[in-house]
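Entry for the shared binder. Reason: the reviewer on the internal report wants the predicted structure included alongside the sequence.
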Amino acid sequence: MGSAGDSPARGPIYDTHIHLWNVTRPSGVPWPPRENTRLFRDVLPADYEAAARPLGIVGTGVVEASDRHEDTGWVLDVTRGNAFFGFLVAQLEIGADDFVSKLDEITADPRVVGLRGFLWSPTLTLAPEQRLHLQALAARGLSLDIISRGDFNPKDKLDALAGAVPDLRIVVDHLGGARGTQPDPEWAADMRRLARHVNVHVKLSALYDMFNPGADETHPWQAPTDVAAYRAHFDVLFEAFSAQRLLFGSNWPVCTMGGSLADEIAVLEEYLAPLGQSTRDAVMHDNARRVYRRG
Protein backbone atom coordinates (compact mmCIF):
# COMPACT_ATOMS: atom_id res chain seq x y z
CA MET A 1 0.00 0.00 0.00
CA GLY A 2 0.95 3.66 -0.18
CA SER A 3 3.29 5.61 2.03
CA ALA A 4 3.86 9.26 2.67
CA GLY A 5 6.55 9.34 0.00
CA ASP A 6 4.67 7.34 -2.63
CA SER A 7 1.37 8.82 -3.75
CA PRO A 8 -1.30 6.21 -4.44
CA ALA A 9 -3.48 8.72 -6.33
CA ARG A 10 -4.55 8.04 -9.92
CA GLY A 11 -5.65 11.61 -10.44
CA PRO A 12 -6.55 14.71 -8.43
CA ILE A 13 -8.33 14.20 -5.12
CA TYR A 14 -10.73 16.51 -3.31
CA ASP A 15 -11.01 15.55 0.34
CA THR A 16 -14.46 16.44 1.71
CA HIS A 17 -13.92 15.73 5.40
CA ILE A 18 -11.11 17.01 7.60
CA HIS A 19 -11.03 18.68 11.00
CA LEU A 20 -8.96 21.54 12.40
CA TRP A 21 -8.55 22.62 16.00
CA ASN A 22 -6.18 24.50 18.27
CA VAL A 23 -5.97 23.05 21.76
CA THR A 24 -3.55 25.78 22.93
CA ARG A 25 -6.03 28.61 22.38
CA PRO A 26 -7.11 30.21 25.67
CA SER A 27 -10.63 28.87 25.12
CA GLY A 28 -9.37 25.36 24.40
CA VAL A 29 -11.53 22.88 22.48
CA PRO A 30 -14.61 20.84 23.39
CA TRP A 31 -13.20 17.86 21.47
CA PRO A 32 -10.91 15.91 21.38
CA PRO A 33 -10.45 15.31 25.10
CA ARG A 34 -7.11 15.89 26.75
CA GLU A 35 -6.89 12.17 27.53
CA ASN A 36 -6.61 11.39 23.83
CA THR A 37 -2.89 11.99 23.53
CA ARG A 38 -2.86 11.15 19.80
CA LEU A 39 -5.41 13.79 18.82
CA PHE A 40 -5.10 16.37 21.60
CA ARG A 41 -2.64 18.63 19.80
CA ASP A 42 -2.84 21.65 17.56
CA VAL A 43 -4.15 20.60 14.13
CA LEU A 44 -3.77 23.55 11.79
CA PRO A 45 -4.08 24.16 8.04
CA ALA A 46 -0.36 23.85 7.34
CA ASP A 47 -0.29 20.44 9.04
CA TYR A 48 -2.96 19.00 6.78
CA GLU A 49 -1.66 20.64 3.62
CA ALA A 50 1.81 19.18 4.24
CA ALA A 51 0.32 15.70 4.63
CA ALA A 52 -2.18 15.97 1.78
CA ARG A 53 -0.46 17.60 -1.19
CA PRO A 54 2.15 14.82 -1.66
CA LEU A 55 -0.73 12.31 -1.91
CA GLY A 56 -2.47 14.06 -4.81
CA ILE A 57 -5.03 16.01 -2.77
CA VAL A 58 -5.70 19.32 -4.49
CA GLY A 59 -8.35 20.76 -2.18
CA THR A 60 -10.38 20.03 0.90
CA GLY A 61 -13.41 20.91 2.96
CA VAL A 62 -13.34 21.36 6.71
CA VAL A 63 -16.11 19.83 8.81
CA GLU A 64 -16.65 21.50 12.17
CA ALA A 65 -15.56 19.47 15.20
CA SER A 66 -16.98 21.81 17.82
CA ASP A 67 -20.42 22.70 19.17
CA ARG A 68 -19.33 26.29 19.87
CA HIS A 69 -20.57 28.94 17.49
CA GLU A 70 -17.39 31.00 17.76
CA ASP A 71 -15.32 28.08 16.46
CA THR A 72 -16.94 28.45 13.05
CA GLY A 73 -15.37 31.89 12.88
CA TRP A 74 -12.04 30.48 14.00
CA VAL A 75 -11.95 27.94 11.15
CA LEU A 76 -12.89 30.60 8.63
CA ASP A 77 -10.18 32.89 9.97
CA VAL A 78 -7.33 30.35 9.94
CA THR A 79 -8.13 29.23 6.38
CA ARG A 80 -8.87 32.66 4.95
CA GLY A 81 -6.99 33.40 1.74
CA ASN A 82 -5.95 29.77 1.19
CA ALA A 83 -7.95 28.33 -1.71
CA PHE A 84 -6.77 24.81 -0.83
CA PHE A 85 -9.37 24.92 1.97
CA GLY A 86 -12.37 25.37 -0.26
CA PHE A 87 -15.33 25.08 2.06
CA LEU A 88 -16.61 24.65 5.61
CA VAL A 89 -19.44 22.45 6.81
CA ALA A 90 -20.32 24.39 9.96
CA GLN A 91 -22.34 23.57 13.07
CA LEU A 92 -25.53 25.07 14.42
CA GLU A 93 -28.23 23.75 16.70
CA ILE A 94 -31.06 22.85 14.36
CA GLY A 95 -34.29 23.79 16.11
CA ALA A 96 -32.81 26.51 18.32
CA ASP A 97 -34.56 29.88 18.58
CA ASP A 98 -31.57 31.74 17.12
CA PHE A 99 -30.93 29.27 14.29
CA VAL A 100 -31.95 31.51 11.39
CA SER A 101 -30.06 34.56 12.61
CA LYS A 102 -26.89 32.54 13.18
CA LEU A 103 -27.29 30.81 9.82
CA ASP A 104 -27.53 34.19 8.10
CA GLU A 105 -24.44 35.32 10.01
CA ILE A 106 -22.16 32.43 9.03
CA THR A 107 -23.38 32.09 5.44
CA ALA A 108 -22.34 35.67 4.77
CA ASP A 109 -19.05 33.89 4.09
CA PRO A 110 -19.60 31.88 0.87
CA ARG A 111 -17.19 29.20 2.06
CA VAL A 112 -19.90 27.94 4.42
CA VAL A 113 -21.70 25.41 2.24
CA GLY A 114 -23.78 23.55 4.81
CA LEU A 115 -24.12 22.21 8.32
CA ARG A 116 -23.27 19.00 10.10
CA GLY A 117 -26.40 18.36 12.09
CA PHE A 118 -27.61 16.29 14.99
CA LEU A 119 -24.17 15.49 16.38
CA TRP A 120 -23.80 18.10 19.10
CA SER A 121 -27.31 19.44 18.80
CA PRO A 122 -30.48 17.63 19.92
CA THR A 123 -31.25 14.34 18.23
CA LEU A 124 -33.07 14.12 14.93
CA THR A 125 -36.81 14.13 15.63
CA LEU A 126 -38.22 16.09 12.67
CA ALA A 127 -40.15 18.20 15.14
CA PRO A 128 -41.79 21.20 13.42
CA GLU A 129 -38.97 23.63 14.25
CA GLN A 130 -36.35 21.17 12.98
CA ARG A 131 -38.25 20.69 9.75
CA LEU A 132 -38.53 24.44 9.23
CA HIS A 133 -34.81 24.89 9.74
CA LEU A 134 -33.93 22.04 7.41
CA GLN A 135 -36.18 23.62 4.80
CA ALA A 136 -34.30 26.88 5.37
CA LEU A 137 -31.05 25.06 4.58
CA ALA A 138 -32.51 23.69 1.37
CA ALA A 139 -33.91 27.09 0.34
CA ARG A 140 -30.43 28.58 0.67
CA GLY A 141 -28.86 25.81 -1.42
CA LEU A 142 -26.97 24.48 1.61
CA SER A 143 -26.31 20.83 2.46
CA LEU A 144 -26.65 18.70 5.57
CA ASP A 145 -23.90 16.32 6.70
CA ILE A 146 -25.07 13.72 9.19
CA ILE A 147 -23.64 10.69 10.99
CA SER A 148 -25.97 7.69 11.23
CA ARG A 149 -24.65 4.72 13.19
CA GLY A 150 -26.96 2.19 14.80
CA ASP A 151 -29.22 4.01 17.25
CA PHE A 152 -27.49 7.34 16.65
CA ASN A 153 -29.58 9.19 14.05
CA PRO A 154 -31.09 5.86 12.99
CA LYS A 155 -31.77 5.12 9.35
CA ASP A 156 -35.56 5.22 9.70
CA LYS A 157 -35.32 8.82 10.93
CA LEU A 158 -32.92 9.67 8.13
CA ASP A 159 -35.28 8.05 5.62
CA ALA A 160 -38.11 10.23 6.94
CA LEU A 161 -35.90 13.34 6.78
CA ALA A 162 -34.94 12.71 3.16
CA GLY A 163 -38.59 12.36 2.22
CA ALA A 164 -39.78 15.34 4.26
CA VAL A 165 -37.22 17.77 2.78
CA PRO A 166 -36.59 16.41 -0.73
CA ASP A 167 -34.75 19.54 -1.91
CA LEU A 168 -32.11 19.25 0.81
CA ARG A 169 -28.81 17.68 -0.25
CA ILE A 170 -28.00 15.16 2.48
CA VAL A 171 -24.53 13.68 2.88
CA VAL A 172 -24.38 10.60 5.10
CA ASP A 173 -20.92 10.59 6.62
CA HIS A 174 -18.60 7.69 7.37
CA LEU A 175 -20.16 4.98 5.17
CA GLY A 176 -23.40 5.17 7.10
CA GLY A 177 -21.87 3.36 10.05
CA ALA A 178 -20.52 0.30 8.22
CA ARG A 179 -18.73 -2.21 10.46
CA GLY A 180 -16.46 -5.19 9.86
CA THR A 181 -15.63 -7.13 6.71
CA GLN A 182 -19.10 -8.46 5.85
CA PRO A 183 -22.06 -6.09 5.64
CA ASP A 184 -24.77 -6.51 8.23
CA PRO A 185 -27.97 -7.33 6.28
CA GLU A 186 -29.89 -4.65 8.14
CA TRP A 187 -27.26 -2.01 7.29
CA ALA A 188 -27.35 -3.06 3.63
CA ALA A 189 -31.15 -2.90 3.50
CA ASP A 190 -31.15 0.49 5.21
CA MET A 191 -28.62 1.92 2.77
CA ARG A 192 -30.57 0.62 -0.20
CA ARG A 193 -33.71 2.24 1.19
CA LEU A 194 -31.91 5.56 1.63
CA ALA A 195 -30.61 5.35 -1.92
CA ARG A 196 -34.18 5.64 -3.22
CA HIS A 197 -34.02 9.30 -2.26
CA VAL A 198 -32.09 11.09 -4.99
CA ASN A 199 -31.10 13.84 -2.53
CA VAL A 200 -29.06 11.43 -0.37
CA HIS A 201 -25.32 10.99 -0.90
CA VAL A 202 -22.81 8.91 1.03
CA LYS A 203 -19.33 9.92 2.06
CA LEU A 204 -16.66 7.23 1.75
CA SER A 205 -14.95 8.55 4.85
CA ALA A 206 -13.55 7.18 8.10
CA LEU A 207 -12.82 3.82 6.44
CA TYR A 208 -10.77 2.67 9.39
CA ASP A 209 -13.73 3.11 11.74
CA MET A 210 -15.13 -0.10 10.27
CA PHE A 211 -12.45 -1.98 12.20
CA ASN A 212 -12.29 0.05 15.38
CA PRO A 213 -12.98 -2.48 18.15
CA GLY A 214 -13.95 0.21 20.64
CA ALA A 215 -16.24 2.07 18.22
CA ASP A 216 -14.77 5.37 19.46
CA GLU A 217 -11.51 7.32 19.15
CA THR A 218 -10.26 6.77 22.68
CA HIS A 219 -7.41 4.41 21.80
CA PRO A 220 -5.50 3.82 18.55
CA TRP A 221 -6.28 0.74 16.50
CA GLN A 222 -4.87 -0.87 13.36
CA ALA A 223 -7.20 -1.22 10.39
CA PRO A 224 -6.59 -3.47 7.37
CA THR A 225 -4.91 -2.06 4.28
CA ASP A 226 -6.16 -4.84 2.00
CA VAL A 227 -9.01 -3.68 -0.25
CA ALA A 228 -10.66 -7.09 0.19
CA ALA A 229 -11.55 -6.11 3.76
CA TYR A 230 -13.63 -3.19 2.46
CA ARG A 231 -14.90 -4.52 -0.86
CA ALA A 232 -18.23 -5.99 0.25
CA HIS A 233 -19.38 -2.73 1.84
CA PHE A 234 -18.20 -0.69 -1.13
CA ASP A 235 -20.10 -3.03 -3.46
CA VAL A 236 -23.36 -2.40 -1.58
CA LEU A 237 -22.90 1.36 -1.74
CA PHE A 238 -21.89 1.50 -5.40
CA GLU A 239 -24.81 -0.73 -6.39
CA ALA A 240 -27.29 1.34 -4.39
CA PHE A 241 -26.09 4.90 -4.96
CA SER A 242 -23.95 4.63 -8.12
CA ALA A 243 -20.67 6.48 -8.40
CA GLN A 244 -22.44 9.81 -8.85
CA ARG A 245 -23.66 9.96 -5.25
CA LEU A 246 -20.51 8.80 -3.49
CA LEU A 247 -17.61 11.06 -2.50
CA PHE A 248 -14.31 10.71 -0.71
CA GLY A 249 -13.50 12.12 2.71
CA SER A 250 -10.51 11.18 4.84
CA ASN A 251 -11.69 12.21 8.34
CA TRP A 252 -8.13 13.45 8.94
CA PRO A 253 -6.61 13.62 11.53
CA VAL A 254 -8.97 11.15 13.21
CA CYS A 255 -8.16 8.60 10.50
CA THR A 256 -4.58 8.48 11.79
CA MET A 257 -5.87 6.68 14.86
CA GLY A 258 -6.39 3.60 12.68
CA GLY A 259 -3.79 3.91 9.92
CA SER A 260 -2.20 6.29 7.44
CA LEU A 261 -3.86 8.76 5.10
CA ALA A 262 -1.87 7.28 2.22
CA ASP A 263 -3.16 3.76 2.88
CA GLU A 264 -6.73 5.02 3.15
CA ILE A 265 -6.46 6.61 -0.29
CA ALA A 266 -4.74 3.51 -1.68
CA VAL A 267 -7.62 1.26 -0.58
CA LEU A 268 -10.11 3.37 -2.50
CA GLU A 269 -7.88 3.80 -5.54
CA GLU A 270 -7.41 0.03 -5.79
CA TYR A 271 -11.15 -0.57 -5.56
CA LEU A 272 -11.94 2.12 -8.14
CA ALA A 273 -9.24 1.22 -10.67
CA PRO A 274 -11.26 -1.50 -12.50
CA LEU A 275 -14.29 0.79 -12.70
CA GLY A 276 -12.61 3.23 -15.08
CA GLN A 277 -11.05 6.67 -14.81
CA SER A 278 -14.30 8.61 -15.09
CA THR A 279 -15.84 6.71 -12.19
CA ARG A 280 -12.67 7.14 -10.17
CA ASP A 281 -12.57 10.88 -10.87
CA ALA A 282 -16.24 11.28 -9.93
CA VAL A 283 -15.78 9.68 -6.51
CA MET A 284 -12.37 11.08 -5.65
CA HIS A 285 -12.77 14.62 -7.02
CA ASP A 286 -15.68 15.71 -9.18
CA ASN A 287 -18.59 14.84 -6.90
CA ALA A 288 -17.07 16.87 -4.08
CA ARG A 289 -17.17 20.02 -6.16
CA ARG A 290 -20.69 19.33 -7.39
CA VAL A 291 -22.29 18.30 -4.09
CA TYR A 292 -20.67 21.14 -2.15
CA ARG A 293 -21.09 23.58 -5.06
CA ARG A 294 -17.47 24.50 -5.52
CA GLY A 295 -17.79 25.01 -9.28
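Summary line for the report: Strands lie at 13-18, 57-63, 85-90, 112-116, 143-147, 169-173, 200-204, 246-248.
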